[in-house]
Design brief:
The chain is 51% helix and 9% strand. It has 198 residues and is of the alpha+beta class. The protein folds into 2 domains: 2-80 and 189-196, Glutaredoxin (3-Layer(aba) Sandwich), CATH 3.40.30; 89-186, Glutathione S-transferase Yfyf (Class Pi), Chain A, domain 2, CATH 1.20.1050.10. Strands 2-1-3-4 form a 4-stranded mixed β-sheet, with helices on one face. α1 (13-22) packs across α8 (187-196), α4 (89-113) packs across α5 and α4 runs parallel beside α6. It is globular, with a radius of gyration of 16 Å. It starts with a strand and ends with a helix. The chain binds glutathione. Pfam families: GST_C_2, GST_N. Residues 1-80 form the GST N-terminal domain. Keywords: Transferase. GO terms for molecular function: transferase activity.
Length: 198
């Protein structure tokens, strides 16, 4: 059975939501970052970055929320969280899955810290453009791939929920609000919220 290392009030929410979407059994290993549990030698052997989430699946171990999305979606194809190999939608799926940590995440941090960056040098360009691009995709909706929900929605939707709704780091837009509402209406999101609340 997969083991998910998680902490309340953290980015591990996306992995909880992901596992709940699969409907597969998994073991949750509480790694409370408020107690320093993520910096013990045992945990650093699992994720040398000392951050949650992390996942163990037999001999396989990985961290990084978006990588966990990609891994679990492939391990449980019956959950239909990723378009199969050869499906043209897979290009969009990979684009959004990488757009999360590559563009949305640093743009959120940039807005929260108000650090000025050279937009040509910064891989995510500038925060305004990142959120404009996301806005345009979400206006088309209902999901990032159109009609089909995927693990990319988990990666980006959980980030938007935190940054827009919970921590108000990013100004909301009608498309963001409607999308977060759609995510939050999913039973797996709701089960994950109950778990994450402890
Ligand atoms: N790039 C990582 C970021 C994970 C991350 O920043 N986790 C935070 C919680 S939201 C953490 O574990 N912080 C504890 C620490 O740095 O000591 C991912 O996407 O999984």
């Amino acid at each position: 059975m997969m083991k998910l290392y998680w902490s309340p009030r953290s980015r591990s929410f996306s992995s909880l939501w992901l596992m709940e979407e699969t409907r597969q059994p998994y073991e949750r290993v509480l790694t409370d970052i408020s107690t320093g549990a993520q910096k013990t030698p045992e945990y650093l052997a699992i994720n040398p970055m000392g951050k949650v989430p992390a996942l163990k699946d037999g001999e396989a171990t990985l961290a990084e929320a978006a990588a966990i999305c990609a891994y679990v979606a492939e391990r449980y194809p019956e959950a239909k969280l990723a378009p199969p190999l050869g499906d043209p939608l897979r290009a969009k799926y990979l684009y959004w899955l990488f757009f999360g940590p590559g563009c949305v995440e640093p743009a959120m941090v940039q807005l929260a810290t108000k650090i000025e960056m050279n937009s040509i040098a910064a891989g995510w360009g500038d925060a305004q453009r990142v959120f404009d691009v996301l806005d345009a995709a979400l206006k088309r909706g209902p999901w990032l791939l159109g009609e089909s929900f995927s693990a990319a929605d988990i990666a980006i939707g959980s980030g938007l929920n935190f940054a827009v709704r919970l921590f108000k780091m990013v100004p909301s837009r009608p498309s963001f609000d409607a999308y977060i509402d759609r995510c939050a209406a999913r039973p797996a999101f709701q089960r994950a919220s109950v778990i994450a609340a402890g």
